[in-house]
## 1
Amino acid sequence: MKHEICVVNDFLTAAHREKVCAAAERHGYTVRFFETPEAAEGQLGQCEILYSHYPDLLRQAPELKWYCCSFAGVEPYMQPGIFPNEECLLTNSSGAYGVTIAEHMVMVTLMLMRRIMEYQASMARREWIQELPIRSILGSRITVLGTGDIGSNYARRVKAMGAAKVVGVNRSGGSGEPAYDAVYPSARLEEVLPQTEVLAMAMPSTAQTAGILSRERIALLPQNALVLNVGRGSAIDQEALIEALNAGRIAGAALDVMTPEPLPADHPLWSARNVLLTPHISGDMTLGWTCDKNVDLFCEDIENYCTGRPLIHAVDRTLGY
Amino acid sequence: MKHEICVVNDFLTAAHREKVCAAAERHGYTVRFFETPEAAEGQLGQCEILYSHYPDLLRQAPELKWYCCSFAGVEPYMQPGIFPNEECLLTNSSGAYGVTIAEHMVMVTLMLMRRIMEYQASMARREWIQELPIRSILGSRITVLGTGDIGSNYARRVKAMGAAKVVGVNRSGGSGEPAYDAVYPSARLEEVLPQTEVLAMAMPSTAQTAGILSRERIALLPQNALVLNVGRGSAIDQEALIEALNAGRIAGAALDVMTPEPLPADHPLWSARNVLLTPHISGDMTLGWTCDKNVDLFCEDIENYCTGRPLIHAVDRTLGY
């Protein structure tokens, strides 16, 4: 066994590489860096640990014992048979994206509440129109669907801005995060929706989250409801959402994820009423902090792996996160 | 003396009127409400207290003892001879606008940092472009010029979102607000500007603030600097700002106030590089909380006025705020 770590990620700076090398060498591992999956082609035969986000590389690494995904969402890795052996460990980089995605979510919450798209349109015509009725995070009731790193970073920010009630909803109904005024299990989602002014969705793609915001549940939202989604597009019945937006049954939506991506040019979502679309960039790897944290999380688990401790960013492959 | 309060404001709900009446009647005052200055024409002869935002009404109220301005900015009232008598008290509604304007400022900070205008442009073309380098409030150095209600509400929000250093700058160099890591007097502004990533301006229009962000001071800002202004357009050398933006010497600006307002259709500010213009709506009276607070502040000072205590929202007419 050669004790080899391979890194196939394009966002690492020289400082990041040094950090990975230092963590590896402490335990007698060597590290090989590849900028692209093409460069790694045929090079992973001895690889024991792989840090990457290209699922296709897995079948080239027969000796793999641990795959660290540099993304938070790991749904491509849930397909049966994708790992070279069933014992191979999987970790993700949940924890690196909470800050940047939460800042995105605060931004789009305010953009929708403050009618900024309408103001931008009138200003683009060089017209000076004022007095569109606006709303505030202060005093709002906000429901966070998915209370992981991303949802909880958002919850802390809106709570600090004076949201009246921040309710978390997750599988178990529990959370250690004090920013939530209450946390409900997803079985009680229907109770929360009628009192929800902002529904902020930040869930992984799993069998349980697919279609969780169904047509029936969209119908439970009040007319002033805003829907945000930064998790996966599959969580929403997108056709029903478009209908609710266009009929004015809900007030607006900000979607960083949708189905499919990229969205085809003729898709009806583009022209839905009061929808703010962004091209899956809320967790953008161009933010230095995100990259630093991503590498830190990996190095932390190198230490755990090499000293026989459990990997703290381990994904439960039966749950999908 | 008839002990008469006149209210010339169009934003009051029935509940607001009841609240004002209750506060007035407790001390033997009657209240007359007018939706518009036209409706009040010729009706203010006996008015002792006027709650409004129309400076022209002042010369119709010879008996006036206290004018409560429902706006925060009171520069129109600084002209000599505008009051019917020099003893007339002046209060403003500073305190009602901090929340809504701070939410606006957080929104535009993030819109500029996250390149949202560029993303909106590519999405409008139905193009799926990713990977524009973005920045984060977390870890940023933010300078707040003007540490009143508005500036401090913004400071608290960006500090809660993890800004690395929040420096306040004001006339005296002091502030009781704990969100500031440091507060400097405006004489030391030049020292702060080179380390400023976001310069957030929230100052009243006074002789001291006019032109405070001069051409020379703009030149001290680093190339990644973002400039926000929600105070008054007169605080900035606007021509120099446009030049700095267009030359790429600073990164962007979000201006809710400018000179003149409304901005003429052929003004070069419309097409300056990476400028986000809004039509002086950050302190929009359509936000319920702002209106509630505005009325609360007035009622609080009715109590003070009638019991002979100092008015807590009094404007120092020599300073202009």
## 2
Amino acid sequence: MSKTIITNGVFLTLDETQPVIEKGSMVIENNQITYIGDAPPLPLEQYDANIDGSNKLYMPGLVNTHNHAAMSLLRGFGDDLALQVWLQEKMWPMEARFSAEDVRWGSLLSILEMVKGGTTTFVDMYDHMNEVARAVEESGIRACLTRGVIGLCPPDVQDAKLAEARQFAQDWHGKANGRITTMMSPHAPYTCPPDYIEKFVQAAHDLQLPIHTHMSETAREVQDNVDQYGARPVAHLAKLGVFSRPALVAHAVHLTDEEIDVLAQYDVRVSHNPGSNLKLASGVARVPELLRKGIKVSLGTDGPASNNNLDMFEEMRLAALIHKGVTGDPVAVPAEAALRMGTLDGARSIWLDDVGALKSGMKADFIALDIDQAHFYPKTNYISHAIYSASANDVADVWIDGRLIVDNGECLTLDQEKILFESQRCFERLVGQL
Amino acid sequence: MSKTIITNGVFLTLDETQPVIEKGSMVIENNQITYIGDAPPLPLEQYDANIDGSNKLYMPGLVNTHNHAAMSLLRGFGDDLALQVWLQEKMWPMEARFSAEDVRWGSLLSILEMVKGGTTTFVDMYDHMNEVARAVEESGIRACLTRGVIGLCPPDVQDAKLAEARQFAQDWHGKANGRITTMMSPHAPYTCPPDYIEKFVQAAHDLQLPIHTHMSETAREVQDNVDQYGARPVAHLAKLGVFSRPALVAHAVHLTDEEIDVLAQYDVRVSHNPGSNLKLASGVARVPELLRKGIKVSLGTDGPASNNNLDMFEEMRLAALIHKGVTGDPVAVPAEAALRMGTLDGARSIWLDDVGALKSGMKADFIALDIDQAHFYPKTNYISHAIYSASANDVADVWIDGRLIVDNGECLTLDQEKILFESQRCFERLVGQL
């Protein structure tokens, strides 16, 4: 049993008993944190490794609760367009050409960016999910994966897709030393007929898995749902039984007070995607109200093509900033709340109870920021610095499941040069086919 | 006469005839760009230095048009508060204790962060401005400096402050090889009585200098102006003659249609500070309308205590994102417009006609981003990547006035270790005195 101790670090613990430890120590044994506190519990010579944490800010790894990682291949391909135009004219025609190989390299490109930027767990909803799972396995990252199914197709194709989604969820749940969990995902109420959504609900019950879906991202989509099904998306999904399973919905921008109450009642988790919602002009989610109602709100980047990066520090900062500016309330989402959304509540939103805080008994998923830089001076308030001043590039070291994945900015598990080369090659082939 | 050529680079020129050069060359002679184009104009051996620009994205240096640099000493000291509370209870009591030495180290801390992050020109409005000017001189950055005067004081103190502001503006205009220009600055309509503002207008006329001031940052301030002076800030300042001089106003969040017309009519330049306006819950400026009326809109970070960093890539991205999300128009501020606001229109907003574009005859103020990173792949659209994917930490090299100031992430002109140490020492002394 290998024992590592980190000393002299600043720790943002996400543990209410001692949220900030200014000059602390943390012990990692195998894939767990077994101690965190002010002083080393044992003499330093009794550890297998002793890491000097001076000038580092340690915090839980970031949890990105909504992504379509392989869409990194389309980063910058079609900006400044409305959601439906962007999807129908730019994304879907290119994505229709995605092979398993494209998904492999696009996912690896995103995972490389995520781990280097401090994301230690991500949710992915896409196609060719075996490739995504293999990329997760190789890279050492933690992930909650799900085949996102668009059901606008003949019944036999629908059935095949559902069977594939079921198979994937069964095959990979608990794999990669438990780093992979799975969900069932009808893509959205506007891309899946009601009876098809009900089949996903049944499958989720059968497999005892949660459901993940897009919901109420744009005003138009909400109106279309009313026009087509006579109900807004929340009532529609509730009626179809989606919330009878543990559920994570992405976006939830356009909600009424009553809908917020329904989400709270069913303990539905919301993945807030501020960057993507702004970029696609979808609007600003009612996050302060969601938080007031006790709903678990986490943060997602959405796919890299609508963001256009996977910097979770940026999402935490946007979450802290935009709701202040839009509501006029300077404490609408304080720095502490944004930090929690990006870490502990992210993990809880995907039912990981032992991830998202630096605390004895938690999984050793944590990151270290290099704080010996001008934008982290003076040393006034480390939570403020992490939320209002930091960016992905400040991340020096990343540990996931007790393993060092990024060391002083270098990813130890992935071949960066090859991934950049192959992702460029994939994009050029895809564009050439258009 | 030294001649340097950069080859094989990607160039964002901000020149409409060829906005992006994919594999280009640029020649710098002394402090000027003398050539930019697809191929080197002369055989490479005829240059004194030949820089390989492969895997670099070159663009004009960023222009930060509103800052109080020394407030970096208060970064993280009082977040998540309303503007007036934050100013009156946190900032002003600490700032009242600022000595010339504090301003020196706070300014150097900010300049270090700015140059490393790609800002080559900044506007600074503060006190102890001789220290700021000396820090500009030492560091090699370009700046437009102004003593910001709060006039809520007895007449003799008012007179002394005005005289000091005049003297500073005269002493430093055109200094540091022309890198320093100056302005006259009554701090704001709510901190300067009308007759005092008129004295600044007269001084600006006497010295033939522009005027810089805060204006219409919060709704409360606008209402107070109406209550106290019977007019909203734009009419108030117009009446006092402020717009009879070339003028740059910071914030301009709360404007009516008529006020926008008045600003357009007087060619008043607006420094949009999206990060600060969101953080202090001041609101969202009507930038799309300002742009439609042809008003020159540039970007400012505001002081580091209300941001809390000086990353101009973040301000460009916020400018591109928030107006889409808030107006529901996905092309409200396209990437190209945000890029222009952060570079060329920033320079024009402070009357620098030979800064802000990569073009023959322009000053050699430019930066290089390391684009051999995951978040810049695939290579689809470089303007998109610069606005939606980049951050300050991606900046590798910075040239200002033809001089290499930052080389592969290291600032060649400033002593980082000393600046970090001294700024921490200053903060601790200031807090100890509270």
